[in-house]
Amino acid sequence: MPSTEHVGDLLKFLVLWDRSDPLLIHCRAGIGRSPAAAFIAVCFANPSADEREIAVALRRAAPLARPNEGLIRVADSEMGRGGRMRNAIAVTGRGLPWIDVDENEPFQLLSTIRTRKESKGGSYTMSHTRVTVWSGPPEMDVTAPQPGFEREGDVVWVAYRTARTDHFAILRFTGVCKLFFGDPNDETLETHRFYPSGLRPYQFHEIKDDPDLDAPLCQWVITFHDDTLEVTATNAEVLIRATRAPSASHAIAAIRP
Q1: What number of other Cβ atoms are within 10 A of residue 127's Cβ?
Q2: Distance CA 185, CA 223 (A)
Q3: pLDDT (tens digit, 9 = 90+) per residue, 150-175?
Q4: pLDDT of residue 73
Q5: Does 116 lie in the same domain as 138?
């Protein structure tokens, strides 16, 4: 069971960590304890940070993570966060299904996060990443885009309802190495790490100058009404601008090889 001794040992180590080198954290499976320790470490390194911002960053970096709530509860108390750490993990993990995997994939969580004041309208100082509008795709139906996607190997097809509500557009991404679909929605988009750089709701974005990406990889972010889609790939294209279909899955099925 997590105890104040466990958390105390972690915090003592973090005091000595000068952050000149990355901190490697691991446990048996990388699903519960190490994600919790990573979350605690970033919160500790950023005492004025928005805890939910850190929790969202963790969720995006490690979708399979289910951070150990006991460790976080103890750390929240020891660090005097007034319940904000445990509430952030609870909110960002609400409704997640049970997973049956042997181990998580390695992930990276940046140790510098914007402060609570900055998260309400300021900007990151840690990155020169630029968010530009991807003007190719047709405008989406902002109220009910009903997006759907299918993946086969390193190819991903994405369909969504356009502003012509009886039509779907289809996008294709190739050389895909990372795919995320989930929070935030349009009401909580300000919690997204790219929001200060220009991310806006109901838009198609291309991320420029991301220090975490090496050529030829690029990243695209699509902000739908209820979810956000992020794709890291080598290429993106508009495959079909308008096709009649009852749903996104039907539209994709009609063009799949």
Answers
A1: 17
A2: 7
A3: 999 999 999 999 998 789 999 999 99
A4: 92
A5: no
Q: Which residues of the chain have pLDDT under 70?
A: 1, 19, 93-104, 110-128
pTM of the predicted model over 0.70 = no
Domain-embedded: residue 195: yes
Looking at the structure, do residues 169 and 189 belong to the same domain, yes or no?
Answer: yes
Contact 145, 167 (CB under 8 A): no
Answer left, alpha or beta for residue 140, where phi above 0 means left and psi between -120 and 50 means alpha. Answer: beta
Q: In the sheet where 155-161 sits, what is the strand order?
A: 148-152, 155-161, 168-174, 235-243
User: What are the tokens at 193?
Assistant: 């790490």
Q: Are residues 103 and 151 in the same domain?
A: no
- Report the C-alpha gap between 141 and 98 in whole angstroms: 32
Entry field: residues in the chain: 257
Res 116: pLDDT: 43
Straight-line distance from the first to the last Cα atom of the chain, in angstroms, rounded to the nearest whole number: 51
- Give the contacts of 46 (CB within 8 A, at least 6 positions apart): 54, 111, 112, 113, 115
Q: Is 143 left (phi over 0), alpha (psi -120 to 50) or beta?
A: alpha
Q: Which domain holds residue 231?
A: 130-255
∠ Cα 168 171 173 (to 5°): 160
